[in-house]
Amino acid sequence: MSPNNEHPTSSNTHHVTARQSYALRAEKATHPLTSYLLRLMTLKSSNLCLSADVSTANQLLSLANSLGPAIVVLKTHYDLISNWDYNPSTGTAARLARIARRHGFLIFEDRKFGDIGNTVQLQYTEGTARIVEWANITNVNMVPGKAAVDALAEAGRKWRERKRYELNVGLSADRQRERDGRKASIVSITTVSQHFEPANSPRSGGEDFGEEVLRGIEEAPLERGLLILAQMSSKGNFMNKEYTDACVESARENSDFVMGFIAQESLNRQEDDQFLCMTPGCQLPPAEDEDAEVKGDGKGQQYNTPQKLIGQMGADIIIVGRGIIKAADPIIEAERYRQKGWEAYEERIA
Ligand code: 5BU
């Protein structure tokens, strides 16, 4: 493979989706989670994903709580967290899911699966983290081949079917108990898996969060979604055009599971492509010098502004980590990124 380390420079907003509003795309999207996310973006006027690259669970949860109102997706690297608590009911993922429902954002575990099909299925659904249980979205590095995507899609489908079945069994058992006048007390697999569900859900064991749920939208659908790592932001990466094209083909083959791409430009090419493009490598110049050039991080990361990524490259969601987390006031900075990202989108569709 020859490296494709140059960032795309030309405009990439010719596809019909680049001119459509997120609300219209929500109506047209066939993937339920894509449709939900686009509605959430419309509701919150936000196309911002926070990359919560911190090292303790408390830092993660506190960032999620304070920046939640500005974002639509929170991206985790759970293996960066030194004290990640794996308990399904009281652990880090369960607590994050409650905050996600309170503020209205999806959880995206940036796991970059990259192994043979059988292994990625196990990594996704089993092991300590059981990512499928708590992450609405995850991603795959397709270097091992399309089988990795097919295998994750199969695991995602199976999980959803099992979950639906468990929920139905759980609901009918509850109804039966109600009819019998008995208290809901049996501990079933349903009860255990329900703890992963977001707050205030008919699926979440009846916990009532009252006012503490984002109004105007229901909880996220059960469907899980995958993003394919089609292009990277890092200098000198080996993701060439041939690889990127294969990612797009694979996405079309698994469009009931693949929501879109991690890429530096929109990859919608065919008329009916409706993929999302989520883009890392995003920073703003300082507020006091908005014309300044944004530079890399000295460790291979390359940055572009929201204006370039959303406005010219057709990205849908900007992914921002240190630009926000390391700011003197992350809440103010997250709001600044939200505004800039949204303005760039409004200009694009105008
Ligand atoms: P930053 O602090 O905004 O540079 O963080 C970017 C995040 O996005 C970080 O978690 C990376 O692992 C992630 N990332 C990226 O920077 N570039 C890529 O091409 C991919 C992921 Br894929």
TrEMBL record:
Highest taxon in the source lineage: Eukaryota
GO cellular component annotations of the record: cytosol
Keyword rRNA processing assigned: no
EC numbers for this chain: 4.1.1.23
Annotated positions binding substrate: 53, 75, 233, 301, 321-322
Catalytic residues (positions): 110, 112, 115
GO aspect biological process, one term: 'de novo' pyrimidine nucleobase biosynthetic process
Name of the protein in its database record: Orotidine 5'-phosphate decarboxylase
Source species of the chain: Mollisia scopiformis (Conifer needle endophyte fungus)
